[in-house]
Amino acid sequence: MNPPSGPAPTPWLAPALVLGLLLALFWVLLPTAPPLNDRVQRLDHAVRTTLQGPQTALGEPINQALPLHWDITAPGQQALADIRLHFDLHTAPSAAQQPWSVLIPRLCNAWQIRLNGELLVSAGQVDQPNDGWASKRPVWLTLPQVLLRPQNELLITLRMDAGRRAGLSRVWVGPTADLLPRWQREEWLRVTLPQAASVLSLVVAALCFLLWLQQRDPLYAWAALGELAWALRVADSWWEASPLNWPTWGLVVLGLIWIWSGALYQFITALQSTPRPRWERNALYVSLLGGPMSFALVWGLQTLRAREELALQIGPLAYGLGSGAQTPLPLVVWMLGTLLFWAVLNVRLAHEVWRKPDLARALVTLALAMCLIAIGRDIYAGRASALHYEESAWAKYAAVALALSVLVIVSLRFQHARDELLRLNSSIGQRLAEREAELTARHLQVTSLERDRAAAEERTRILRDMHDGAGAHLIAAIHQVESGQATRGELLHTLQESLDQLRLNIDAMHLPNGDINALLSSLRYRLERRIQAAGLRLVWRADELPLIAHYLGPQLRHVQFILLEVISNATQHAQGTRLDVTATADASHVILELRDDGVGAGQGVGNGLRSMQERAALIGAQLERLTSDKGTCVVLKLPLRQSV
Fold this sequence. Notes:
Strand content: 15-25%
CATH architecture of the domain at 42-184: Sandwich
Low-confidence stretches: 1-12, 92-96, 308-327
């Protein structure tokens, strides 16, 4: 009986611990804001604000509390503002005093700063609306002591473009040493952390792209595309000057958000084997298409609103939420609709993970929930509340958790693919070993069969050679005895030839491969006495012959039988007095020539000649037989190289 299984481990524990550690690390690294003291002054009220724009009378003074969020104060309008701020020194300035500085957390879009009428610094082109400058980093300015007075005036000339989060945050003035920690905190939040988030997303995108090149898994491709789009989007939050003017760059940034949203959804889809519901995909398409449509609608309505004669008709349509909510309605509706879609999707993902635990989807669900909370807060802070104007957006920080989740998921996916590959390699190696063992056994079996076949062929050859040589002579001796007509000498001669044939067969079995000299020596040793007994004078001339590498035992035996047949014809039928045997070699052949001075014509014709020609053809040799009244000459040419 199997022991009862305990409760299934919750899939939220590991990702919750990871994200909790990230939040704790973020909290530890976040510089704390220094406490206020009487030396640091917070300027949160403009003594006098002068606006110049199509909807505002030239030079009209307006009292303004800070922060000033222009998209909320005057949505859809373009203006140039002179904002005057006063601050006092506690003591008269002197050379011994420490320097004073100014910190402005947010100042958009283009601006100039003057102290007591003297221009200190400027950024962007104040007189050119919608240029690429955006002023997204905190402004830190050390005030020249020679310009400081007991009562001072900061004049900030500010160009404010519609739809670009223009405005002015509260201004901090005080001794540099007291104000520096607050500036470091603002620089950390608005520049350092977003830069780190951009680098992290780029690293994750590069890693996913390399993995996609290696494995062609769509999950890696969507992760790389989404992280690359988000890295560029976050870079826009700290990059001071946009590459393009407004609204072109706004469309590019919006396009990066579309790409990120679509890639994130495809990444979530790739995490599971079953397809997502059709209504869910259709809702995503509507969300992606709604972005450019709402952006174009708002831009067109703002252009028409600039015409004063249509202001009353267009105003209620574009900004129809009442005086308390003066934000572009189509863009807000799209943002809220997209946020609602992702919130519903996140709830569905959480329910799916709860029913079927999965670490990868649990990580994405938690990270996505953090991003949705941050984006919702950013929409509220950026479109509905001027008090949050100087605060940094949360989405770029929360998306770090999503990037880390993608990194963890991709790492787990790669580890799983690597383990699967190792398992497959191990299986393939085992199969190869089994196949190799099978092939080795088959090879041994074939080798054994080949040895048996070679032995059988060798036995067949020996029997054939004995039949053609010694056997034929023994049969002839039997006929001689049976006929009673052969003399004792003839019978002895026949038996001697049979014995010579048998000895030559045995010698052929021990000849070195390719050694024609050894073959000729064995032939001369066995047959010289018989040649002389037949009344022939043997003239032997053999040079040092090269080895014929491709002539093995069977080929050498064919050569032996050809020469033996020629010598037998000369001793039995030629009726000559001399037999010349010559062995030479040229560049391509070993040439064996046997010549007698007998009667020549008609001798050796028939089965003997046909047998010699067949044997010569088998070994690739050339055989020529020339007869004349002066005798017979047989020339055998053996090739030194085997023909292809």
